[in-house]
Fold these 3 entries.
Entry 1:
Amino acid sequence: MTIDDPGGILAGRTAVVTGAGRGIGRATAVALARAGVATIALLARSAGQLEGTARLVEAAGARAHVRPVDLGDPTQIADVVAELTGTIGDVDILINNAATVAPLGPTATRSAASMLDAFTLNTIAPVLVTGALLPGMVARGWGRVVNVSSGIVAHPAVMIGGSTYAATKAALETQTISMAAEYADTGVTINAYRPGSVDTAMQEWIRAQDPDQVGHVLHDRFVASHASGRLLTPEASAEGLVGHLTRADNGQIWDVTDPS
């Protein structure tokens, strides 16, 4: 994979990728390394998965820094960001990818706690991590923030049983556009990326659920999508994301189908 990077704008940069243990996060970290990013901090809950990503990142030519963390616990975020900047230095690129698709199932079965957990990880954590890194980016006059969203925001009615997930991603896109306007003309761009239907562990987890619990419509949709053979690879989706980083777009909702 070759990213078109006129002037080598990504070369030598330092990045943070959340949810980097597998799937789109792992593939994005590797794509950043191949595009010339020099140092990549890898964040997720599972240390073992992060170590696997680190080996791939280093094989692609970048230095990897592994930091296990539960971003669903907001009290950890400020300390983790401070530790990272003290260890790897100034952060130029932030990819907020960590997310959960739970809770799934009929709306009447939702608990307040499960919904709060989803919003905390999917919407609040990206804003807090971004907020912690933005002052440094603004001070240096350059930065790239990408919040990984979902195409389901455009068509929430098709994800019956997954309304909480759709709502968290819609809120994330709203936050993205608002933050982008707030930091316009600073040299820092903030955009969202809809990665497409990707063959990830999240999709596998949904297919493995009891249809009676998550709902037959939702379960059958994901089973049929996988059976069609049309799911993207994480690598293909990550290429689209990283390709956008060389541009100065701000406040945009990118889609994997957009030219990068």
Entry 2:
Amino acid sequence: MLENKSVREVWQEIERVMKERPKPIQGMNVVYQYDITGDDSGTFQLFLSDGTARVVEGNEGTPDCTLKLSDKNFKKMIMGKLNGTAAFMTGKLKIQGSMGLALKLEGILNEYNLSETA
């Protein structure tokens, strides 16, 4: 289960499933940045470019949308146990940049159903 994995391992899993099934990210050219706080913190960027996904730790590119949240809430969101809009409204998630891109990303991640990955 993802909750037992490190944030870095979760990002590896996200990159893997997106490479295996590129259809949901076809036609997208965007850089998402996650600023993750907590015991397992870090900055990660997700580059989506014409059906390819690449995850980088650190600040390699200029993000179109930045999401800030704790490591625990990040894992909950990835597994579909925490709704992004609810997290934003309750202050568990902060967004800089395009709110529309943040909502689109949540929809994309839901298509991959990461809660079922090992």
Entry 3:
Amino acid sequence: MRIAFHAPLKAPDHPVPSGDRQMARLLLAALRAGGHEVATASTFRPFLPAPEPARMHAAEAEATREVERIAARWAAEGPPDLWFCYHPYYKAPDLLGPRLAARFGLPYAAAEASHAGKRAHGPWAAWHGANEATLRAADLQVCFTPRDAEGLAGLVPPERIAMLPPFIDAGPFGAVARRARGGGPVELVAVAMMRPGDKARSFAFLAAALGALPPGLDWRLTIVGDGPERDATRTLFAGLPRDRIAFAGERAAAGVADAMAGADLYVWPGFGEAYGIAYLEAGAAGLPVLAMDCGGIGSVVVHGTTGVLTPEGDLDAYARALAALIGDPARRLGLGEAARRMVLGERTVARAAGVLSQALACWDRHR
């Protein structure tokens, strides 16, 4: 199929790294691996962090101009076979796809669509309504987690939903050769952007958990990442021994894989994580994960098999689990090996390509 791809929250070529940008790129790779011809239809980004009427109206006007621009191109070159939207939700609704699909008679598919019923009233009501209408009319919804599918219940018939477990391009992570270390501290690693909100909350939680560890444990933490909250993040860990915390800054995938190669345990609490691509990258590198059982993390970390999940917000439980894993190298090794097998065997671009192609083929046969 010829597919027009759009990510209203963050385009695949957006300059700021994030999980959203990464998953957009992964979906492009999976669709292409399935033999489809895929092109980014637009880099138009309607995302607004707050419901400001003037900016919403401006975005809608810009969307109208973008629709006409794309329509003119399609009229000259021919339209695609499908519009595929990644992660539409009330703060970043798809203001292009529904109008273009209706004008050119195209089917509409979405992945990781989100519905927030509580936004039906109040300042977000208009964009919530637009997003809800799009979700209801979509021909296919690709859900990464059971939580995603549950959020669409009542809006989308079950036959229009296809489940696609989160996946990665293992690349340098799958090629990691574990570096043998003779003694020394247990090496912990965390990879995350330093920004306000849930990321800052997770950093604070991790710092508190480390501070609650028994004094006799020998450990060291390397933090990979950067962002606007760099100084505030460093302050969170200032009360811990300086020789136990290393800030590695932002790194490309190869640099992150290298940091994981020398680590023993991936630690990231995960407030607000839809699922967390970094957990899969850690698994591909053979690292066990310690996270909280919240959001969609259970879709990428299997408790007791590839890592350990503790109750959301329970600092004592997280600190106890961390202490136990630091003191149990055999368990860490077993969890890490299982994580590597799962990710490299089940969570690959090739596997995702097959699932997506089957979903599109099944939908096409029954439309």
